[in-house]
């Protein structure tokens, strides 16, 4: 009898737990529903959303104002958009970005496109999975200063708190009277905005997903090369966003960070002291020069290329892969990257004719969606003189 009662209790408990789990999943989906509705139906890459920041269109719209507001930097000279400019597909066109105090950033500015599909957001930090986490870097880092929030948090916050426009907008979102605007409020709104920036209407998308015959003969030949066993480009640049590797590590987990032989300054696999990839995070020599696989979307607008902005053209990038690594013949950083001992085994080099190289470049350019450059949903919302910010 006791066994039967225990069984009944277990069944009821399991049913209650199942209901809770199902309800929780439905609640989570509902909380992000307005964002999920914006996603292209033909994208199947995994979606990554911070469960602590429930998305709303109103929050994203307010985040757009904050994204373009230069009052969020210590001296009112920079905004998020300074390093992530719409006309450059939310990069800035520099080899390395420049902070509010004129210092060079560590790396080239990454494009803020389709980041909802990214499990790892930065070039060399495997611990940042959401923009709500990553945004701490530009706000608070001081080596070098980007926006300059460290030690100046209240000064910058008060500029926003006394603005009647922001007071009203934050009140609408929170639905409550009073309360100070917090750093978290600002981070959550900006993060909501950048998650809404989507690129999914390139010539390739129209051809491959929408079945429109819009690619040229050269672009189609380049596509065959890209997906060929001979070049293996898609082994690292897979998925809808062209940044999802199919390579697994010894534990069966997808590898997202690779050493592609960009440097070998000491003949022993050395990278520049100011930028050594995942090695800076964990101190493991095997991770020297490992960087996150970047998206190939919108390459027409995001030059220069690589994490260090070290390539001005796609031809230069492809020729480096043909050689099996970048060879630098002069200066302090000279070295044969093709001989880097930490380089991934996939980077072995290959041969292309001049025609094939052109075809491959043309295909890569077909992954660009120019509509993002003029989409008003992503543009600067301020209608008054920005010098007053």
Describe it.
- Mean pLDDT is 90; it is low at 1-30.
- The protein is mainly α and 389 residues long.
- Strand 3 (327-328) and strand 4 form a beta hairpin.
- It has 2 domains: 57-199 and 372-381, Cytochrome Bc1 Complex, Chain D, domain 2 (Orthogonal Bundle), CATH 1.10.760.10; 216-365, Cytochrome Bc1 Complex, Chain D, domain 2.
- Helix content is 34%, strand content 2%.
- The strands form 2 sheets. It has a two-stranded antiparallel ribbon. Strands 3-4 form a two-stranded antiparallel sheet.
Which SSEs are present, and which pair or pack?
Layout: H1 2-31, H2 33-36, H3 57-67, H4 80-83, H5 131-134, H6 136-140, H7 153-161, H8 164-174, H9 183-195, H10 203-208, H11 217-226, E1 257-258, H12 279-282, E2 291-292, H13 314-323, E3 327-328, E4 335-336, H14 354-365
Antiparallel strand pairs: 1-2, 3-4
Helix pairs in contact: 3-9, 11-14
Instruction: Write out the strand line-up for the largest beta sheet, numbering strands in chain order.
Output: 1-2
- Strand content is under 5%
First-last Cα distance:
75 Å
CATH superfamily caption of the largest domain: Cytochrome c-like domain
Helix content: 25-40%
- What class, by secondary structure content? mainly alpha
Total individual domains: 2
What is the count of DSSP helices, taking H or I runs of 4+ residues? Answer: 14
Note the main sheet. 2 strands, antiparallel
Shape: globular
Instruction: Count the E strands.
Output: 4
Order of helices and strands: HHHHHHHHHHHEHEHEEH
CATH top level of the largest domain?
Mainly Alpha
User: Could you say what the CATH architecture of the largest domain is?
Assistant: Orthogonal Bundle
Low-confidence stretches: 1-30
Radius of gyration: 23 Å
Q: Examine the coordinates and then state which fold CATH places here, giving the name of the CATH topology of the largest domain.
A: Cytochrome Bc1 Complex, Chain D, domain 2
Mean pLDDT: 90
């Amino acid at each position: 009898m006791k066994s039967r009662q225990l069984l009944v209790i277990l069944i009821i408990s399991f049913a209650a737990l199942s209901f809770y789990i199902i309800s929780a999943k439905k609640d989570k989906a509902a909380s992000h529903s307005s964002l999920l509705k914006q996603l292209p139906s033909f994208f199947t890459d995994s979606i990554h959303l911070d469960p602590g920041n429930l998305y709303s269109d109103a929050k994203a719209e307010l985040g757009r104002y904050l994204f373009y507001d230069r009052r969020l930097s210590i001296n009112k000279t920079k905004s998020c958009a300074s390093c992530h400019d719409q006309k450059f597909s939310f990069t800035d066109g520099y080899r390395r970005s420049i902070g509010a105090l004129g210092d060079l950033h560590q790396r080239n500015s990454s494009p803020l496109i389709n980041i909802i599909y990214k499990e790892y957001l930065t070039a060399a930090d495997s611990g940042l999975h959401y923009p709500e986490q990553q945004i701490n870097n530009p706000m608070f880092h001081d080596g070098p200063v980007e926006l300059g929030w460290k030690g100046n948090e209240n000064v910058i916050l008060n500029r926003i708190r006394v603005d009647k426009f922001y007071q009203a907008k934050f009140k609408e979102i929170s639905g409550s009277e009073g309360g100070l605007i917090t750093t978290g409020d600002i981070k959550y709104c900006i993060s909501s905005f950048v998650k809404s920036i989507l690129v999914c209407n390139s010539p390739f998308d129209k051809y491959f997903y929408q079945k429109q015959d819009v690619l040229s003969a050269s672009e189609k030949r380049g596509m065959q090369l890209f997906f060929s066993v001979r070049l293996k480009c898609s082994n690292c640049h897979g998925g809808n966003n062209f940044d999802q590797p199919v390579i697994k590590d010894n534990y069966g987990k997808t590898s997202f960070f690779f050493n592609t032989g960009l440097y070998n300054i000491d003949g022993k696999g050395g990278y520049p002291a100011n930028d050594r990839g995942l090695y800076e995070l964990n101190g493991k020599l095997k991770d020297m020069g490992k960087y996150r696989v970047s998206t190939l979307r919108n390459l027409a607008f995001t030059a220069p290329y690589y994490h260090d902005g070290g390539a001005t053209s796609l031809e230069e990038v492809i020729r480096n892969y043909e050689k099996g690594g970048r060879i630098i013949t002069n200066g302090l950083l000279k070295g044969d990257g093709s001989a880097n001992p930490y380089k991934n085994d996939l980077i072995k080099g290959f041969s292309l004719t001049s025609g094939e190289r052109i075809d491959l470049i043309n295909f890569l350019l077909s992954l660009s969606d120019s509509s993002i450059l003029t989409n008003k949903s992503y543009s600067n919302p301020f209608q008054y003189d920005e010098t007053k910010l």
